[in-house]
Amino acid sequence: MIISIIGLGLIGGSIARRLRGFHNAEIYGADTDEQTLRLALADNVIDKGFKDGYEAISDADFIILCLYPKQNVDFLLKNASSFKQGCVITDVSGVKEFVLSSIEGKLPDTVQFVGGHPMAGRETGGYKSSTDTLFDGSSYLITPTAKNSPESIALVREMAEYIGARHVITTSPEEHDAMIAYTSQLMHVVAVALCDNPLLERAANFSAGSLRDCTRVALINADMWSELFLENKDALCDRIDELCLSLNNLKKAIVGGDREMLIKLLEAATARKQKWLNETVR
Is the pLDDT of residue 160 over 70? Predict the structure, then answer.
């Protein structure tokens, strides 16, 4: 088997690091950065490196697209006629309806595309930030369609488990985007909004840690996250509206001096967090 990984940044590099031995595959890597290719070859992470992704796919049995969502789409459309017959393709895009709708009916019937999304990351990107433990214990989401064969779905699932994912979840593109808007994209929106306040300039000595915790993901890749926000704008705006409603309920209770309502809201939030995120109050 030949596996081609297109894009050797944080995610692509981390997948490549962990794939050694998977089906005894030969691993190809494609990246526009020559230094990244040199490092990946020197680390024995890939067997062959290519600056042009086209050169990495003609013989590939399994292709993992690790670019930004629009770049993944553009790559698929540009190379639609160049994929090997029977090839299985997956991606790591943080949005799914955008990708699947963009390629609908535009790939050969002999090629299988199975959407994927590893739920792991770091604040810093690039190959130098990649690690062979990034996916340990993580969740990995896959969004197959009716066109996908059981064998192609099984291959993506097997790959996800091989690189360390503890939970491989099958979901629809619609549910994926609605949930990711809440669990990931909204968290970045909140972190950015918290940092969009001049009080942050004097906050260092006024915080015991909660501000730092709440703003951790504000160390953000603006190019990538602005694209993700816009490609999932409907679901994300719904989550922002829901957050604003919750904030207004809290504000209403505070303005009205309604301590009983505040206690109810706070206790309800604590109970929900304890039930679903396995946390306890310290």
Answer: yes
Confidence band, pLDDT 50/70/90 cuts, at residue 277: confident
Give CATH for domain 2-170: 3.40.50.720
**Are the C-beta atoms of residues 2 and 57 closer than 8 Å to each other?**
no
Phi, psi of 114 (to 5 degrees): -120, 110
Asked whether the whole model's pTM tops 0.85, one would answer yes
What are the residue ranges spanned by the domains of the chain? Answer: 2-170, 175-277
Instruction: Provide CATH code, domain 175-277.
Output: 1.10.3660.10
Nearest to 71 by CA among 219, 233, 217, 223: 223
Task: Record the tokens describing residue 84, joined without a space.
Answer: 């090997």
pLDDT band at 279 (very low <50, low <70, confident <90, very high): low
Tell me how far apart the alpha carbons of residues 62 and 156 are, in angstroms, rounded to a whole number. Answer: 9
Report how far residue 67's alpha carbon sits from residue 9's, in angstroms, rounded to the nearest whole number.
8
pLDDT in tens, 49-70: 999 999 999 999 999 999 999 9
DSSP β-bridge partners for residue 3: 27, 62
